[in-house]
Structure formats: C-alpha cells, structure tokens
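Quick one:
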Amino acid sequence: MIETFQARIREAAARRSPLRLRGGGSKDFYGNAPRGETLDTRAHAGIVSYEPTELVVTARCGTLLVDLEESLRDRNQFLPFEPPHFGPGATLGGCIAAGLSGPRRTSAGALRDFLLGAKLVDGRGRLLSFGGEVMKNVAGYDVSRLVAGSLGTLGLIAEASLKVLPRPPAETSLRFEIAEGRALVELNRWAGQPLPLSASAWHDGALMLRLSGAEPAVRAAVAKLGGEPLAGAEAFWRSIREQEHAFFAGGDPLWRIALPSSAAPLSLAGRQLIEWGGALRWWKSGAGAQAVRDAARAAGGHATLFRAADKSAGAFMPLDPVLARLHRELKAAFDPAGILNPGRLYAEF
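Output:
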C-alpha cells in the first residue's frame, strides 16, 4: 500500500496536481476547505505492534480510532490525550493530522506529547521515518511531533507510534453552581493543588469537574471540593469531547479560543463553554472574525474558526512574518511541488 501512495504522490507532483489526503472524513470541516483529487488512506489499516508492558502501540494511518481504542481497552489502557472522533469513521492518520486533544488535555498532555514516531510519505514520494517507539529516541529535529496538527500539508502520515497509559482505577465527576469569573478563579487555584483533576467544563452557570486516579486520592478530593455528583458523567464528557452537547448545536460559527488559563472573561457576543481549566474557551458567536481575533490576541491567546459555513476569513489566525516564513520553508522542504492538502492550513501554502 505504501508503494501505491508513493506512486500516486510522485505522479501528482510531476503534474503539479493537488492531492486531498483523506481518511474517514470525520474532520473535513476542520481547517480551510480541502481541495484536489482524493487520496484515500483507509485501506492502509491495522495495528503493527502493541507492547502493553512498554505502553507503546504502533498502527497504520487507516486504522479506525474505535478499533485502536478497543484493543487498548482490552488491556485496560487508553490514549491519554482523549482524541475526539467527530464520527464513526475517524482514523489514526486523521487524528494525528488534526492534532486535536479532548477534555483530558490539561492533565495528561496534548496528542503531540504522546507521538513517539511516524512514517511519512513526503511530497516527493519518499518514505521518511522519524522518532521511534521509546520516549528517549530523538536526535536532531523532532519531526514526528511536527506533523501533529499539520493537516496533511507536510506529508501522508503512513504509520505512527504512540505512548499509551493505564486507565485510572477510579473516576468520578462533580457539579457546582458557580459564575464564570469565580469558576476561573477556582479552577486556577485548584490547578496549583495536588488534586486528581482530569477534566473541567463550565457552561451557563455550572462547572463540572472530573477526578481520576487512585481510589483514596479521588475520595479525598471529593471530600475537599464538595459539589454534587454529576449524573450521567460518562455521557456528559463524551458529549463535550465529540461536540454533541447542546451548546454546540445551532448555526452560529464556532470559535476555539486558546488563552492563558488565568485570563479574565472575554467580552464577546454569543454563548460560551470553557474547558481545560480556563485555557480553552469555545464561543458560538456571530461576531466578526476580526473582533474575535482581536479579543483573543488582547488576552494573550489566539482564535481558530473551528466550524462555520463561511471560512473566507481563514480558519486560523494570520501568522506573523517570522512564523509565516518558517511555515513556507517547511512546506517547501517536505512538499516542494505544493500538492499536499494545499491551502488547508493557510491559503498561501
């Protein structure tokens, strides 16, 4: 299958014909509009190796996330960055290309922190290998982590090795009635304490916390924090991860605003849901792109137009000149013909 990918990419490069790298298509909405002839990666599937005692799994790009997670669940392990699927066809390659992490992000780390190695077919059709299958294996540039979130613009992620973790032995969720400003203060205060916090979500005057870890630690945290037990906790956290919660419904554009967790409440029109201890603020807002991005920049962060019918303003915030040059040079190094998912990150490359 790799040879088929290589031949297809070489042919497209020779014709300078854009290719749309695509797995299950569950994240087609993310980034700028995809274009080009579709190169479907789903046939290149399957777990290559899994060493539960080493906490490492290696799988091909077309492997369904549900299948990978089921194999890990059989050994009481999981992907700690809790990736969103956004559909039953989500694949490992698309998961890594999107680089998205779920509610456990602040406690466990981001997807890129668990990406140990990757095999990449670049824009010349070469098969490149980066990293490996252990944590301390990187010499030079850590390119495997660079492809996380690249949306296929640097190459086709043919295979990847990920660090996994044991499932926490105990987990419970709490609910608090609390205003936004107070919730942000408390979340930042709790973050500085030895509490087993694994997720948080504030919306419409209610703060939900998830506690994960050893049974005594979770029990002690519940006694210290108070609050009320959250009914249907597993379904709730899934609804946040998969954006099935009622907040995400409706036609207004959805903005993903990343800020310092201690940033004050934003003054924007619309509705809001806060995750990651205050560091991720989802806004359903009809405010103009410039207004949203100015507010994010003033608060020390950045804003991504995550879901919208009209993305003419660009999905991602414009880069400053230095970062733009680095992006262009990386694109030229990995994809000199500019054929791989062109424009998916930024219109100019």
